[in-house]
Amino acid sequence: MFGAELAIPSRQLLYYSTTTITTRWSNPILSPHPSSVFTGISSPLQIGLCRAAAAGKVIEEDVSKQKKTNAFEIESLTSWLLEQQRVGNLDAELTIVINSISLACKQIASLLQTANISKLTGSQGTINIQGENQAKLDVIANEVFCNCLRSTGLTGIIASEEEEAPIAVEETYSGNYTVVFDPIDGSSNIDTSLTTGSIFGIYDSSNNKLGVAESEQEPEESNSTPATLRKLDEKKQKTIVSVCQPGRNLLAAGYCMYSSSVVFVLSLGKGVFSFTLDPMYGEFILTQKNIQIPKSGNIYSFNESNYELWDDKLKKYIDDLKVSPAATPSGAKRYSARYIGCLVGEIHRTLLYGGIYGNPSNIKSKKGNLRLLYECAPMSYLVEQAGGKGSNGYQRILDIVPEEVHQRVPIFIGSPEEVAKLEKYLA
Q: Which Gene3D superfamilies match (predicted)?
């Protein structure tokens, strides 16, 4: 019985080729002491020890390879932000602000998933400053965003599409950041459980002179100060001006898409990164790095129910997109029309597949439909970081200086070649 128990380990220790023994022992570090020169078959214990020592380096290399290819290794939004902080792409305070926004998005995602059960669908019965009917979740999501941002103690000014004016956070008025956001984009999709989203942009509150250096400013009494500001007291003027910055001043921007997956897309000015909410961990997990929009595409997204209200040049552009390739010069491509009714969904698809999204001005909305601060600037910032282009048809969106907090502008955004093509039609 005793011999049987030793038989298996003995065979395991002796099971290797003579070549292996020679190779291992050719290393002076692993060679036996001269007083015990290898002759014939050594004891199983001695051979096993030598084999284990010789295999040490190989095992270490294998472990290191496993670490690099470990399928269970994940990177959360929090750990990614900390790494960006370590390499100097953002500071600790901005890390906290972005984390608070991600927390707000998680809460909103949960509310949307149970909206029908919790009776949160339908209209609130109120109208926002835009003159639009507010859904119940518009109001709730706005409160969620505001509360999460206040709790950081680092947000000085909050501007929401749902609020009449920017809010100077009293408990943190000295905060370094101005955050603009649309708490729920595409809220008309809530009742049918279609795609919705949240959009945000973050500015430095000290960059508050309408995009012009402080030394270049006229005194406040000067006629150069917008009339809307001259009517306000000094504190309110400071709040409004801190918000009315061009998109090129953005420190960070992003959106959260609530669909079959909850996707958080973010840029800190060094590429675009996508994180997907893992319900098992309750964390956003990095799923796409350095997203690059295709230079061109064959998808266009316009609300064509407004076709008759558009400028003739824009009509010509749309008509030409619809022409069959067989009837056009060689090299033409066939375009497909897609329209979700949610800016976040439109931009997310365009980032991945290319093409163009447009929300132009028309006879009824001569200044366009989308808000510059809360929608157009943050989205243009993201698309440009991915190699795309955002334009009002004549000017880069990020260069437009807001004249008021709820200013609307037309927007054409997407693949650089597609936007450039449209601008030629409108020129």
A: 3.40.190.80, Fructose-1,6-Bisphosphatase, subunit A, domain 1
51-64 pLDDT tens trace: 555 555 555 555 45
Where helices occur in 90-210 by DSSP H, the ranges are 92-113, 136-151
CATH architecture label of 299-426: 3-Layer(aba) Sandwich (3.40)
CB–CB of 274/263 below 8 Å? Answer: yes
**Residue 123: how many other CB atoms lie within 10 Å:** 13
Lowest-pLDDT choice from 281-285, 320-324, 420-424: 320-324
Whole-number Å distance between alpha carbons of 68 and 45: 34
Separation CA 345–CA 101 (nearest Å): 19
d(CA 276, CA 120): 25
Locate the domains of the chain by residue range.
Answer: 77-208+232-290, 299-426
> What integer pLDDT is reported at residue 4 of this predicted model?
45
Q: Where are the beta strands (DSSP E) in 137-292?
A: 155-160, 167-168, 177-185, 196-204, 252-258, 262-267, 272-278, 283-288
Give the contacts of 232 (CB within 8 A, at least 6 positions apart): 240
Q: Which of 55-59, 137-141, 315-319 has the lowest mean pLDDT?
A: 55-59
Collapse the DSSP code of 128 into the 3-class scheme (helix H, G, I; strand E, B; otherwise coil) and give the result.
coil
Element (H, E) at 227: helix 227-230
Q: How many CB atoms lie within 10 A of CB 147?
A: 13
The C-alpha atoms of residue 135 and residue 14 are separated, in whole angstroms, by 76
CATH number, span 77-208+232-290: 3.30.540.10
Handedness of CA 204, 210, 212, 218 (dihedral sign): negative
Structure-token pair, residue 239: 């709040």
Q: Is 166 left (phi over 0), alpha (psi -120 to 50) or beta?
A: beta
Could you read off the pLDDT of 375-403 as tens digits, one per residue?
Answer: 999 999 999 999 999 999 999 999 999 99
